[in-house]
Amino acid sequence: MNLAEYIKENMVLIPKGQELIRDFIDPVKWLSSDYKMSAPGTRKGKDTREELVDVLSFLLLKTTVTNELYSYVTGIECDDKIKDFPVVNVSWVEAIEFCNRLSGKLGLEKCYILNSVSEKTIVDYSKDGFRLPTDVEWQYACRGNKKGYRYGDIEETAWYDKNSDKRLQEVKMKRANDFGLFDMIGNVWEWCFDLYDEKRYGNYRIFRGGSFASEERACGATSRRKSFPEFQIDDLGFRIAKSSFSGLR
């Protein structure tokens, strides 16, 4: 793999814009909660929190990080049969470490200053290295200039429990959104950088978009879940972002 060429060919420029972030917060749910945040039809009895956020332009990988890319960067062996599938069973902590390692391999400035206490990990968006998308960046990019819950018919754009045979699928097998991004909904959930709500949920981080095992209503632009940063599961991966083209030309 020519790493520099791969990254240049597979990063998409997301234009600046605005995104409305809306959460439905259960006032009686705390750390033990496992309910689905922001999934349609689950807002009864919850407090609504809304914020219109300006989004600066940034780069985002066309697909989730594949086994091939993850193997190349980390040195962990990968079976050739699964090289084009999303890497899964990767924690938020491991995704952050991957971003720094990839930045180092390409001679870019690392975005993260790591801390053993995950909520004290510092991100510097002025650096030219790789990082996870923020929660609002992910949602804005997922919509791809559309206003609805999905950027197209779910059968054409997403792998979910009714069409995936309940298993992981290769990337780029469904239609991309208008930004040229594949699998933003379905196939695998995707880690974002953000803490969900530190006062109520401690160090829990956000992941987005639904997976091959998810029901239809969980696969959409505003669907999010949360878990602790060491959490791993077989339908959760990530994609990488970058603040500018600096260092890639």
TrEMBL record:
<dbReference type="InterPro" id="IPR016187">
    <property type="entry name" value="CTDL_fold"/>
</dbReference>
<dbReference type="InterPro" id="IPR005532">
    <property type="entry name" value="SUMF_dom"/>
</dbReference>
<dbReference type="Pfam" id="PF03781">
    <property type="entry name" value="FGE-sulfatase"/>
</dbReference>
<feature type="domain" description="Sulfatase-modifying factor enzyme-like">
    <location>
        <begin position="80"/>
        <end position="242"/>
    </location>
</feature>
<dbReference type="GO" id="GO:0120147">
    <property type="term" value="F:formylglycine-generating oxidase activity"/>
</dbReference>
<dbReference type="InterPro" id="IPR042095">
    <property type="entry name" value="SUMF_sf"/>
</dbReference>
<protein>
    <submittedName>
        <fullName>Formylglycine-generating enzyme family protein</fullName>
    </submittedName>
</protein>
<dbReference type="InterPro" id="IPR051043">
    <property type="entry name" value="Sulfatase_Mod_Factor_Kinase"/>
</dbReference>
